[in-house]
Write the structure tokens for this entry.
Amino acid sequence: MKIPQRLFYLCLIPIFTLWLQGCNSPNQYSVKRVSDGDTMALTDSGGAEVKVRFACVDAPEIAHTKAEKASKKSVDKDQFKWGNQAQMRVEQLIKQKGGFVTLTITDTDRYGRKVSEVRLGDRTFIQEVLVREGLALVYRPYLKNCPSAAAIEQAETEAKSKRRGVWSDAKFVEPWAYRRRTN
């Protein structure tokens, strides 16, 4: 009698595990597209698209127009180089962790995007990874709305001291300063 009972429970464990993996929490989203190093388009459980701007950080810009892509200016090339690296890193993290994220929405910006802390299925905080690797910077004007501000600031302190990413580049211009120059 013990063998069939043990077999029954052994069969239930994988079924229960698969069921849990298939359950989407209300704040779990499928990643549709990574637009750049701090913006993405998601799909909610109902199939609606949700545009998200990462809370707490600002990533380097990427080239959007033909003119930007063709630019010979060193400041543009430098900005877009780091922006492309940030975008690729976000795509890599998402691919490694199954294509789903969870959000902690902190605000809605003027473009209607949900400003959010974004975590992968294993709770990896994407913004913290980007900042720690020097591929995004703390965006202080909006840090007060960031529940994980201390972790983000600590990650930036580490990246600066170890001269990672943009912190190793003497020519790098902060994204907000770069946008002011080009607008």
